[in-house]
Amino acid sequence: MLSKRNPQLNAHGELIHLLSIEGLPKAVLTQILDTAGTFLSVNEREVKKVPLLRGKSVFNLFFENSTRTRTTFEIAAKRLSADVLNLDIARSSTAKGESLLDTIANLSAMHADMFVVRHAESGAPYLIAQHVAPHVHVVNAGDGRHAHPTQGLLDMYTIRHYKRDFSNLVVAIVGDIVHSRVARSDIHALTTLGAAEVRAVGPRTLVPGDLAAMGVRVCHDMAEGIRDADVIIMLRLQNERMSGAMLPSAGEFFKNFGLTPEKLALARPDAIVMHPGPINRGVEIDSAVADGRQSVILPQVTFGIAVRMAVMSIIAGNNA
Amino acid sequence: MTTLHLDAEALYAELLARVRALARPDAVLVGIWSGGAWLAERLHRDLGLPGRHGVISSALHRDDFGSRGLSATSDPTALPFAIDDRHVLLIDDVLYTGRTTRAVINELFDFGRPASVTLAVLVDRGGRELPIEPAATAARVTLPPNQRLALTRDEGGRFSFDIETV
Q1: Cβ(B101)–Cβ(B95) under 8 Å?
Q2: Which of B73, B85, B104 is the best substitution to test chain A (most A C-beta atoms within 10 A)?
Q3: Are B61 and A37 within 8 A, CB to CB?
Q4: Taking a C-beta distance cutoff of 8 angstroms, is the pair B123, B11 a contact?
Q5: Mean pLDDT, 10 residues at a time, over chain A (320 residues)?
Q6: Nearest to residue B148, comparing CAs of B138, B132, B161?
Q7: Under a CB-based contact definition with an 8 Å cutoff, are residues B81 and B51 in contact?
Q8: B64 vs A: CB within 8 A
Q9: Could you report the predicted ipTM of this complex, rounded to two decimals?
Q10: Does B70 touch chain A (CB under 8 A)?
Q11: Which of A34, A50, A314 sits opposite B60 (nearest CB)?
């Protein structure tokens, strides 16, 4: 039975779905990060596979394209010994007019044990979680502008890996915050884990002042936003936003908010630079920074597999 | 009900003597987390073996994952040596059903192909559910199924046993 308080948790407070970081207690986030550490070492073994999800079927349902996220979920599920099915939903059932819940009902009849869902509509994974059988688990792989919890968690894993502790950290999230489900998940996670200060940095059109209600410091000036930061999370500037008159041009954005070596010098000398990918060189980040010694963009990808293994194994082991 | 008293330090001395007789000079000690890891650490020191002992966790190969979920895995397997062609001596504090031993043997083989695997335990409490037998045991005891036997280690490194009724 789904708990009324938070549909992600069972009556014992254990994680059964991962839909959003919002509302998850610190202990659950810490459990995921600790477990991910174990799985990171699995990737260094002779046999890079453990049998926790042996005999289980994981269905990757990507109603929206994302090669990288789908691939890392697929690798994670396979390293847990699950059978993985990738469904190109956008081009099949939905195109023929089948409703989301009918698609889920049909796949459930094929004995799916877990759905990994990416959908353009915020809340779609919640809807699915409310309708699946008690033994079926749902992971949100990004829904609309709402949440991308595994990206948020892998960002937290990366920060903890390099900085150990959150309590003294200043974290600057730079770019298109308002449209970013990654930013939202990061902000909730950083707040729960107790980061000292979270800054949302970008132009007024992409970082509205009311974001302060989420407990962040809003900065419309890049220098102010990244000065003395320990962690800088650059977001991808989504090209589709450019057409909506939210920005004058990509060149203008780079001039003001693109991360260059000169701007990075304002942050702490040991600051790390993160990015959820794919990066747009010369739009939000300079190549010298993306490839520089402070960049941890590629380790983020590696940690992402371990974090997704942790999420899938934890929820699969808990009953509704 | 009679209270079972186990002198863990005396049992350790017994285990040390048996392991000394059993262990090949080129053997590596691998302790099963957590009690077995403490024993392996001390045996390794008392036997004057070179290098470091290994620690192994059953968490990723447990057969009760479906009902109990993922157990605490913040102390994962750490084998500071290659195990291919080595004689591995697994150490555990309490041997009961044998399921943990089965899980850690699977875990061990994820790292390579040892020449042999031998098991030494401080206490064998019977109740085996799998065909697993230790090569060395300091004591055999009989306990009702609702009692749990767990090794503890104080700050000075001295061992004692806790018996809990669950």
Answers
A1: yes
A2: B73
A3: no
A4: yes
A5: 72 96 96 93 88 95 89 96 88 73 91 95 94 95 95 98 97 94 96 97 90 92 97 88 69 92 98 95 95 97 96 93
A6: B161
A7: yes
A8: no
A9: 0.81
A10: yes
A11: A50
